Each structure stands twice: as C-alpha cells, then as structure tokens.
Amino acid sequence: MRGAVLRTWPLVTLALVALSSGDVASRAVEPAIPRVAALAAPGPRFVVIQSYAWVDGVAGTATETLDLSTGRYAEQIHVGTASYGDGFDGKHRWSNDASGMPLIDDSSDGALDALVWAHLFGRTGPEHLTTRGLPSNEGHKRLRIRYGALTGPVDVTLDLPQLHVSRVDDFSGESPSSTRYSDYRVAGNAIIPFRTDTANGFSTTRLRVRSVRGAVMVSNRAFAPLESPRDVELIGITAVPMDLRHHQVVVPIRIDQGPTLNVLFDSGSTNYLSPRAARLLGLPLEGSAKSGGFGAGTVDERYTVARRLRIGRAQLSNIPFSVLDDGARDTDGAIGCEILLRLAVRFDFSRQIVQLARDRRSLGELGTSLPIRTGSCQAETDATIDGLRGQIGVDTGSATGIDIMTPFVNEHRLIKRYWAWRSITGSGIGGSTRELLAYANVFGLGAFRLHDVGLGLGTMTKGAFADPTMMANVGIAVLSRFNVSLDYRSHHMWLDPIASLDGIPYEIPYNRSR
C-alpha cells in the first residue's frame, strides 16, 4: 500500500467560478454554505475553461467543464505520462490515468467529499452541510465545512472584501490537499481565478487559464467517465508462476523488448519500476513527484509508460508506470491496480500460480463471493475484528497478517483492550514502521471466521497507517489461507479456503515493500 495510488488522481483542481452579473460579493457566500459558483440569469449554466497545465513539472494543457446548477464537473489534463482526468457526474466521483482507464470512486468518503465540492460549485441540495467560522486574520474570512461521516473537514478561506475564494484545504481521506486560487478576472459573465495551484503531499498541479466560454447546453456524457481503452490482448486464461519470496507474491513480466523482470503483484499498489529496471529498459522518464507507503517519509517518483507489457500470454499496450526506489534489491518493482482494472486475477496459493483472464467466468469455480469497493484502486471490503466492524484493504503486497490503522486503534482504544506491549518493526517505502503485537479472537471476513489471528496495532501518525478511512490492511499471512480471486470490473472477490483458518500469526517480513 503506497501513497502513489492517491497521487495519480488528486482531488479537484478545477478553477472556482462566481458569476459576475449583479452584486457578486453579496452572493459569493450565503449564511450557511460558501458559494464559489452560482447561477444568475441570464448567464449560462455551463462554463468550459481551457488552461495551460503543469503536473509535477510536466507541461501541457487542461480542459474543464462545470455545471453551475448541479455542481457536476469534468477535467482532463494532458501532460504526457503524468496525464490524468477526474470528475463528478452528479452521483459518483471518477478519475482516469494517462491511459484513459476510468476508476469509479465507490467509497463512502469519496462520495461525501465530492458532494461538498459540488456545493462549492453551486449545488443547492438536497444535502445539508454545516459550516462554522474559524479564527480569521485581517483581510480574510475562514469557514469550516462538514458533511455527514466525511472523515475530515473542508476549510475555505475568503479574501475580503471581495469574498473571493483564495484557498480550500480538504482534510478528508488519507492524503489531505490544499488548493490556492488567485488572479481573479472578469471573463464574459463570470469571475474566474486565472491561477490555481494544488498540492497533496505527493503531487503538484498548476493551472493558468487561457480561455473561458459559457454554454447553454452540455451533454451529460461530458461529465461521465471515459470509456475503458481497448488495450488488452488475451484469449482464454494465462498463468504465471508465483514466487512467495519474503511472503510476498512475485511474478515474471516483460516490458517492450527487455529481459524478464521479477515484480510484486501487489493489489495495494499502482504499477511501478525500480530505477535500476527503468535504466535497463532504457525508458524515458518525466516529472518529479513523491510517493509514500506505510513509513512516515516519502521517496522520489517519476513517470513512464510501457508500450508493451507481457504477463504470460496477456499483452497490454501503453500502460503507465511510476519509477521509484522501494528499497528492495531482489525485485524490479510492482504491478497492481492498472492490471486489476483490466483483467480478472486468481491468486492460486495452493498451486503457487497466478491466473489472468479477460472474463472472470473463464477462471471457473472461484469460491465464496464478497462484494468489494475499488475507489482507492485497492480492493476494499467490510470485516469484523472481535465484533468491531470496519473497512479493510486486500493487499497481496503485504507480507503481514492484519495491520490496524492508527486512527482505528485510537478510536477503539485497542492497545488497552489487547494489553499490547510488544513492539514490532518493519521497513519499506517511506522508511521504518512501528506497531504493537496483539491477537484477535475472531476475524470475520464474509462468511468466514478466522480465530487467533495476529494483529499489528498501528502507532504511526504519518504514512498509510494514518488512513482514517480504513480499519485495517490484510496481507499474505491471512490471504494465503485461501485461493483469492479479484474482479474489479464486477466489484467482487472470491475466497476458497485451502488451509486452517485458526492460529494465524502476525509475520514480520524481511523487507516490507508496502
């Protein structure tokens, strides 16, 4: 599990709009909810913005479309291998990577956060958001917005006396973001901040507006996610050997005309290559960003693309990869979300092979089905630990059993509950980690009950352990008791037990890459 998953599609970077007909200042903020976008007859309902864009130092262009009535939006930023898109269609937030592969954010936190931003863009209901004033200094007014069970607030700073939005700090989710707006100008019947700068701790995006136009009608398709690219060639099923070195799934792949690489097949990560492997392949690199994992720190990250990726008989074209140093010396990187969005995958631990198919029905009988969410680019589902319910991530890149996130540990006072005192340490992307060892009596996963299961109680306040949206991350020590099948497109996973579900230790890895 690493922060690069969140970097690929940062939170909204759209320019905020306030219509200029009439008294803009008096309408920019209502008593309860700040309005940075609003309808005003006879102004157009839709605004299309063209901008120059820079993402992590890579230059290009951006196109953004806003619906000032419902708060829907869509943007595509074209900056080479760092390209991405995101949007909100009125119900779901979505994103896509440089290949155009869409990802629907089906998490509850993502949906709530999208609705908060929709209200900032002019949506008027039926949601009920709450606001309160924050300490402000001369020349600025600060408000805090909360909505339902959203894991963090959204703080809005307004410049006085114009009441232009100058900053939005979104503290929800694992990776808070900060967006600054400046250089407001009149464009047609709208006031537009011509400069937008967004950062989330891993990535930066800069937008500089070059044109604005209003539109009376825009198709609903303009706010929908892109169609999935047709970039996979595979007939039937292909299988590759699974090497469980250091209790992590390692598989062979080939990129372009290069030699065989040994990479993690990590359901908790996006694709990446080590700098050594990228040099060996002669891949061109772009951008300069950061990536993180369970450790509190970050590592440098750059971007590239595999023109042809081969996994067994499966061939994939123009697949994005990051390039970063995960600290491992006997693997060449990882494949993850980008593959799982395209293919159904069966991790057959009983035979130590990984099977891939375009249609999960080709894989045959898979076991007991569980629904999953994939909004974070990781398979997530509900589970219980000694009666406590929460959301877990399915992580084939983690060598451990069950890692409990620090916010969940603190909320439920788990250190005291389990009398945990023995410290356990790990290392990987982001540096060293520290947890406290405990054992759960019962871990409930779908129809299955696992007994006497090792836990690592998180103590880290930075990195992936600080994720407030998750209860736990479940790794190989638990998953290898099953054959595990994942199909992101149908939003299901399957578990087929192959070993005892009792007495599962928490295993300390040789080198945790997640």
Written overview of the protein:
This protein has 514 residues and is mainly beta. It has 3 domains: 4-223, outer membrane lipoprotein receptor (LolB), chain A (Clam); 232-357, Beta Barrel (Cathepsin D, subunit A, domain 1), CATH 2.40.70.10; 368-504, Cathepsin D, subunit A, domain 1 (Beta Barrel), CATH 2.40.70. 9% of the residues lie in helices and 46% in strands. The chain has 8 helices and 36 strands. The strands form 4 sheets. Strands 1, 2, 3, 4, 5, 6, 7, 8, 9, 10, 11, 12, 13 and 14 form a 14-stranded antiparallel β-sheet that branches. The protein is globular and about 65 Å long. The termini are close together. The model is unreliable at 2-32, 35-41 and 508-514 (pLDDT under 50).
Query: What's the CATH class label of the largest domain?
Result: Mainly Beta
Give the strand content: over 45%
Structural class: mainly beta
Number of helices: 8
What CATH architecture of the largest domain do you see? Answer: Clam
Overall number of strands? 36
Instruction: Identify low-pLDDT runs.
Output: 2-32, 35-41, 508-514
How much helicity do the residues have?
under 10%
Major beta sheet, specifics?
14 strands, antiparallel
The first-to-last residue Cα distance is: 5 Å
Shape: globular
- The CATH topology of the largest domain: outer membrane lipoprotein receptor (LolB), chain A
* Number of domains as seen in the coordinates: 3
The averaged pLDDT comes out at 88
Compute the gyration radius: what is it? Answer: 23 Å
